[in-house]
């Protein structure tokens, strides 16, 4: 028998049928964390949008309110909700509605504002989407951006080199939007290292880990999924931030050097290590 408190989380993001991102990453990782996982697929794409050409895209926005309405009639509620890649401002508004109607008292809303990396917005996103995302971030118990996303959300200049004062300013601006805690990924102050900077009004915590060269696609989704799963499993925010970082590093190490695997990370073979970290 398991002795931990079994929780139920809802994750809302797209299904990219091929590409190891969004739901095809979140569902297995959350399950590996020992958490019941419900999903709302916001769209179905044949692949993700970063590198494949001519992908299909079926928008499921109009299904989302109907799902919510049905769950309301069934009395379905969640201990947590984790939002990832969303396709439109309308979907963001619907997510706010879903959080208000389906989260139990004390449940956590975790927002990964998946929309940008390396200083630029992903294909298909514009300033209006960024504005809408600020409304969801305002409701978040935890916001899990990379530095690019954090800068778009707070109108700070994106920098590749910076000091702690710059990171504190970016985190402070995210807290000022209304998020209760910031878990900022990809923050490095020394060559060869990167890390996660956790901040709220009461204090800060920094977890440093090795930086591997050559970014891999999908690591943001791996990180946010492992973080959400570890948190739902009962770990503290600091522990979950560190476990998710260690797991993401293992995923990148397991993928690095495989040129045919440019589109995602091989996260599955190292799931046993994640499970071990949660014991
Ligand atoms: O990994 C984020 C992500 C999720 N879903 C889709 C994407 C991306 C990043 O490009 O294209 C469809």
How is this structure best described in words?
The protein is α/β, with parallel strands linked by helices and 279 residues long. The chain has one domain: UDP-N-acetylmuramoyl-L-alanine:D-glutamate ligase (3-Layer(aba) Sandwich). Helix content is 40%, strand content 24%. The strands form 2 sheets. It has a 9-stranded mixed beta sheet, sandwiched between helices. It has a two-stranded antiparallel ribbon with strand order 6-7. Helix 2 packs parallel to helix 3. The structure holds 3-hydroxy-5-(hydroxymethyl)-2-methylisonicotinaldehyde. 3-hydroxy-5-(hydroxymethyl)-2-methylisonicotinaldehyde (PXL) binds next to strand 1 and helix 7.
Brief sketch in words of this structure:
The protein has 279 residues and is of the alpha/beta class. It has helices at 23-32, 63-74, 89-102, 127-139, 147-154, 164-177, 219-232, 237-255, 271-277, and strands spanning 8-18, 36-47, 57-59, 78-83, 103-111, 116-117, 120-121, 142-143, 181-184, 193-200, 203-210. It has a single domain (8-272), classed as UDP-N-acetylmuramoyl-L-alanine:D-glutamate ligase (3-Layer(aba) Sandwich).
């Amino acid at each position: 028998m398991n002795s931990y408190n079994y929780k139920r989380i809802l994750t809302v993001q797209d299904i990219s049928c091929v590409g190891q991102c969004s739901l095809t990453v979140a569902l297995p990782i959350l399950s590996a964390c020992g958490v019941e996982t419900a999903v709302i697929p916001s769209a179905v794409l044949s692949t993700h949008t970063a590198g494949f050409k001519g992908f299909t895209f079926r928008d499921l926005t109009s299904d989302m309110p109907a799902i919510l309405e049905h769950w309301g009639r069934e009395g379905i509620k969640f201990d947590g909700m984790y939002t990832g890649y969303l396709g439109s401002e309308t979907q963001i508004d619907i997510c706010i509605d879903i959080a208000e109607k389906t989260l139990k008292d004390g449940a956590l809303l975790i927002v990964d504002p998946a929309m940008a990396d390396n200083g630029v917005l992903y294909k298909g996103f514009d300033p209006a989407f960024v504005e809408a995302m600020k409304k969801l971030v305002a409701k978040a118990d935890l916001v899990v951006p990379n530095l690019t996303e954090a800068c778009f959300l707070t109108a700070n200049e994106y920098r590749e080199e910076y000091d702690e004062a710059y990171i504190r300013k970016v985190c402070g601006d995210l807290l000022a939007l209304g998020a209760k805690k910031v878990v900022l990924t990809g923050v490095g102050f020394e060559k060869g290292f990167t890390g996660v900077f956790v901040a709220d009004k009461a204090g800060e915590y920094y977890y440093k880990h090795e930086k591997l060269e050559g970014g891999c696609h999908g690591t943001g989704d791996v990180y946010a999924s492992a973080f959400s799963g570890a948190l739902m499993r009962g770990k503290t925010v600091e522990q979950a931030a560190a476990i998710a970082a260690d797991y993401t590093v293992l995923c990148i190490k397991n993928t690095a050097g495989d040129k045919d695997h440019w589109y995602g990370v091989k996260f599955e073979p190292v799931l046993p290590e994640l499970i071990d970290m949660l014991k």
